Amino acid sequence: MPVLDTLIAKFPGAFTTSSFRDNRRVLVSAEKAPTVLFPLLKCLKDELGFDFLAELGGIDYLGYQGAADRFCVVYGLTNTQTGERLFVKAFANDPDPELPSVVELWRGADWMEREVYDMYGVRFPGHPDLRRILMPSEYTAYPLRKDYPLRGHGERHNFPTVTRADS
């Protein structure tokens, strides 16, 4: 696989790889992600042709058997010339999970990073406008974290009721 060979040569020891069926993954640990993630993604885009960020989402591995890190941000990349797909999984940990923003590489990452921030609390230094996108700006919790109570923190009664006619 020429893509992985190039990455291994340019970033020795910076990541591990895995695959499931036809999905290839590059895994960047929480210790290395702050310094390695952006240059690795830039290389994938500029040198290896992964010009389309198809998806960006978050995962909370709290309580997951064998998980070494708490949070993960998954970057689904596509090479539009060849149709090749690659997933980059970058990890982050509490108390302040952070990964560098990739909005500079793919403008489409703007709202996707904001959603991961809003739902999981992962911050993206370098993001041009990192603020809540789904929850009210005064909201202090992160609803998709696994330690968030299923019934909430009692905040539902504070939200104004929006009727169908008003929506």
Q: Would you kindly provide a written description of the structure presented here, covering whatever features stand out?
A:
With 167 residues, this protein is α+β, with helices and mostly antiparallel strands. 21% of the residues lie in helices and 22% in strands. The protein contains 3 helices and 5 strands. The protein has helices spanning 2-10, 33-46, 109-120, and strands at residues 16-20, 23-28, 52-60, 71-78, 85-92. Strands 1-2-5-4-3 form a 5-stranded mixed beta sheet, covered by helices on one side. β1 and β2 form a beta hairpin. It is globular. The termini are far apart. The mean pLDDT is 92.
Short description:
With 167 residues, the protein is α+β, with helices and mostly antiparallel strands. Helix content is 21%, strand content 22%.
Shape, per Cα inertia axes? globular
* Strands side by side in the biggest sheet: 1-2-5-4-3
Question: In angstroms, what separates the terminal alpha carbons?
Answer: 51 Å
Percent of residues in helices? 10-25%
Report the C-alpha radius of gyration, rounded: 18 Å
**Helix count?**
3
User: Could you name the ranges where pLDDT drops below 50 across 5 or more consecutive residues?
Assistant: none
| Relative strand content | 15-25%
Q: H/E order of the elements? A: HEEHEEEH
Helix/strand-derived category reads: alpha+beta
